[in-house]
Amino acid sequence: MIPMLGEEEAQAAADAVRSGWVAQGPRVAEFERRFAAAVGAEHGVAVSSCTTALHLALVLLEVGPGDEVIVPSLSFIATANAVRYVGATPVFADVDLATGNVTVETVDAVRTPRTRAVIAVHQGGVPFDVVALRGAAASWGVALVEDAACAAGSTAYGQPVGSGAAIAAWSFHPRKLITTGEGGMVTVDGADQATRLKRLREHGMNVSAADRHASAQPILEAYLETGYNYRMTDIQAAVGLVQLDRLAGIIAQRRALAARYQEMLAGLDGAIPVRDPAYGETNYQSFWVLLTPEFGASRDEVLAELAGQGVSARRGIMAAHLEPAYEDVAPPALPVTERLTRDSLILPLHHALTEGDQEHIVGVLRKLAGR
């Protein structure tokens, strides 16, 4: 993933520096409003990363020791780590083979009376079935947190991912479609929730530092609860506002490149490319290919050959339960998760990718498959 950054972002950052507002200020507030509107949410609260967004989501829900939170193992490790931050226990669920996402069935299979929440990931930008999972969570009396780190601009049932979500966490890391360098967002539909999140991100203060500095009269702040320093800067938000203007074009280009990959890979036995689910559209933040035994070469052999041909591909999405940090967790059988993390690879997909690049990449795959 190569971020699409240019002179406009550089100028926006420079303007923020010249303004004197380099910490959290008016640009952050504008970015919150505009991003929330773009994803169909009522309120946005900008934070320092998607990891801190997930942490604050669980703090907001008052999840803690003794509680279980169901998460996919097939996700960046931050999804599971956030559960441990609040002293709760992560419980790993398996995923659907085609989408890489948890389903009602895989979540229900590991649900217990101690389950307080589910963190469901829109993996690689592929939306999970929001209607089914939101409905199930409501019927179980369990909170649903949507990890939408990769999903800005993806849709489900004709609406942006994030629309109708009780609480969702977003990432603006450089590997995402739009970036602020580092940074994240929590979106919620409740004004009271947004107010508390803004307090939690800023040391638990009842009034923001920006509001205190903008006031003509002294304001004596109070610290209402234990909070955190999870703020975004105005410099980051300035870049984010320019990036947000680019989002529609970025998605259109990525979907066109993905469609071309899919067409070129058609008929190549043993190589199954990711596609849109029936109920939505992915932004193709990641374009993965699942290899089956019919392909004739292992995933690691394919990665090695691609690297030798100058192609920077990556292994498939990690499985947290296979990492040393979670060796003390005894998960249920996760056959689909382990197959996807072992047998899939992520092909290059970015704004600088040319048709010639794609032909070279797919040519290497066809050669390995003996075609």
TrEMBL record:
SUPFAM superfamilies: PLP-dependent transferases. The keyword Nucleus does not apply. Its cofactor is pyridoxal 5'-phosphate. Keywords: Aminotransferase, Pyridoxal phosphate, Transferase. One of its GO terms (molecular function) is transaminase activity. The keyword Transferase applies. Signal peptide: none annotated. Belongs to the DegT/DnrJ/EryC1 family. PANTHER family: DTDP-4-AMINO-4,6-DIDEOXYGALACTOSE TRANSAMINASE (PTHR30244:SF34), TRANSAMINASE (PTHR30244). This is Aminotransferase DegT. It comes from Phytohabitans aurantiacus.
